[in-house]
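Could you show me some protein's one-letter sequence and the numbers that encode its backbone in two labelled lines?

___
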Amino acid sequence: MEEYNKEQLAQIQAGKDANLDISWYENPEFTWGQMMEIRKGLESDVDVSLYAKHNFTSEQMYQIREGLEKGLDVSIYAKPEFEDMQMFEIRSGLEKGLNVKIYADPNIDDFKMLLIKSALIEGLNISNINFKDLTHEEIKTEFRERKERKNNDTLDNYKDKEFSAGQLKEIDLGLFEKLDVSWYANPEFNNLRMFQIRLGLEEGLDVSWYAKQEFNANQMNLILIGLKNNLDVSCYANKDFSKAQMAEILDGLWIGLNVRLYSNPEFDEFQMEQIRLGLEKELDVSSYLNPGISWEEMAKIRLNLNRKVKNGK
């Protein structure tokens, strides 16, 4: 018989008492702390398969479980190469709607992550810094200098550049609000795109998600709406999605659907709509979850599935 210590046996018994599937952790190679985190995940009905592994410490398991319980995309940090405090900084950023991909790197230590997270919350433009090559003090100095430049910036610094009157107006409005206009003070952004970035900065959002040349003003607006409503914009903040595709994914997020099933650029917006409509009716959309099926055929399959459900078949 395999040998367990009393703490491990207590976790196994607690799982039995709660009618949980203790096979996930009934293994003496798991410490009692690991067992406890798996048990708590089972009690919360989260996908423990993402962390019920020997190469995660109990502290790492805790960070992954917390993320799962809060509906976060833990795949960004559920990796053994991240230390538990790095996981915490990434999870904390996800909770705040930040673009954590900027610092979700095992080579960036947790204190650097904290500094980067704080700068993103403050709205500083830090998208062009190689953090791995800088010390903690160098990062703090760089952020301090950028903050000073932001606070001392004036419109005169932009009048001699190739900006239209509409673009200069957006820069002037941003400066008046003490925003870091370096996010959008670029002649390649037209005034409509500048407006969307300025709105995000005024709302205190992490505009690094969409302050990019690859997005037009309409796409930016849809990402801004998602951020403003604490939705997981990582599902559609992708240059490969059109405005219409983004809108379909956003509609699904609004009502809590598993949009990952159709957030694929290979589905056009009409196919996405049919999948979304099926999910709204809690249908098994797997039978038409294929980009090779036309949206018209998808509609037929969906309506047929809906009839079968109504008829109790």
